[in-house]
Amino acid sequence: MKQRTRQANMELLRIVAMLMVVVLHYLIKGGATPSLVGDTGIINMITWYLSALCIAAVNVYVLISGYFLLEAKWKVSRLISLWFQMLFYSIGVPIVCLALGVGDVDEWGVYDWINVIFPIQMEHYWYIISYVVLYLFVPILSAGVKQLTKRQHEIVIAGLLLIFSIPKTIFPISIPTDRNGYDFGWFVCLFVIAAYIRMYGIPFFNNKKKSFGIYFLAVTGIWLISIGCGILSSKGLALEHAMNMPYCYNHLLVLLAAVGLFYGFSYIRIPQGMISGVICKVSSYTLGVYLLHENLAIRTQWQFLAGIEQVRDGFGLFPHMLVTVIAVFVAGVLVDYVRDCIFKEVIHLWKKVFAGKIAENKN
Could you say which DSSP state residue 314 is in? Predict the structure, then answer.
């Protein structure tokens, strides 16, 4: 794969991954994926397969970040920018909801407002917290993996998978140390894998057809395991926990799906021009989509505001999902574009004032 920092195919994958995240939140938090124990109707089967198609999205997002961060210049300004971007949404969205009378923000107590004022400390956005910690360690991790031989690098990956992924993939039980991939440790594992891909590549994923094929095979495996566990659970076997396990970020099949999708998009060629420019521009606002729709004030509200309850039990769910997901994505991109314009203007004014004060002091 080429090693340019703004590859339109990878930026397109970033957009697709965020759309997948929104689909997951629409289905799961909208109550459209009831337990497979006792409900193996066609609608439920389809929603669970759609969830399987999308569950690799977070891993894909981290793989993209790790792939480029390995050679990118580490910047404190990136952390500061991310902090203020998060605060813009964390505090701003509840205030807007309160003003518009949307949701239950008017019933919030002190603890709820502490959650939005201190989003990292209170784990308002779990992904951002894990990413921030990962970014703090990126210089160390990057320097470390570059000191390893290829063989040593492979051993490190195997060791990390043995800790975070292999046991929960094999054994259908709850493991006390397992956080299902919602943690910094799993992000480190993904970074090390992304670094390996950039430094050495994985010859097995040697063409687009095979890469996308592996993605769909892994997705289908996730789905079939869950259906099987659901059916067996309905017959009295204690496998309900195992039914949900393949839908965890650190399950081996989810990781395999993510790597397959990553490689599949790496073989897509998008010529430089207007289309690639639009893709790169839109992708720079995808994090805003996450910060908007996953805000504490609306993360379990927007699905019902869109009317998911009226379509949840029929085939009308799927066109409704398509329209709603696109609307949420577009809204998130537009809001983050406005946020970016505001931030740029504030920075410009601050630099202007700061430069004026320096000139004044010199005089």
Answer: S
| Statement: residue 2 has pLDDT above 50 | no
Proportion of the chain in helix, strand, coil states, percent, rounded to 5:
70, 0, 30
Q: How crowded is the C-beta side of 46, counted as CA atoms within 13 Å?
A: 11
Map out the domains of the chain as residue ranges.
8-362
pLDDT tens digits along 301-359 = 999 999 999 999 999 999 999 999 999 999 999 999 999 999 999 988 888 887 666 66
Whole-angstrom distance, CA of residue 67 vs CA of residue 171: 31
Instruction: Report the sign of the C-alpha dihedral through residues 86, 26, 265, 282, in that order.
Output: negative
C-alpha span between 300 and 253 (Å, rounded): 28
Both tokens of residue 117? Answer: 């004022």
d(CA 348, CA 29): 40
Q: What span, in angstroms and rounded, lies between the C-alpha atoms of 45 and 38?
A: 12
Instruction: Please list, residue by residue across 289-299, b when 16 or more beta carbons sit within 10 angstroms of its beta carbon and e when fewer do.
Output: bbbbbbbbbbb
Predicted TM-score (pTM) of this structure: 0.94
- Euclidean distance between CA atoms 18 and 190, whole angstroms: 17
Q: Which two structure tokens, joined as six digits, stand for 346?
A: 């504030």
CA dihedral (302, 307, 313, 314) in degrees, to 10, reads -120
Q: What's the CA gap between 86 and 65, in Å, rounded?
A: 18
pLDDT, tens digit (0-9, with 9 covering 90-100), for 86-127? 999 999 999 999 999 988 899 999 999 999 999 887 888 999
Give the ranges where 179-300 is alpha helix by DSSP (H): 184-199, 208-234, 240-244, 252-266, 274-283, 286-293
Compute the distance between CA of residue 250 and CA of residue 179 in angstroms, rounded to an integer. Answer: 9
Q: What are the pLDDT digits (tens) for 74-86?
A: 999 999 999 999 9
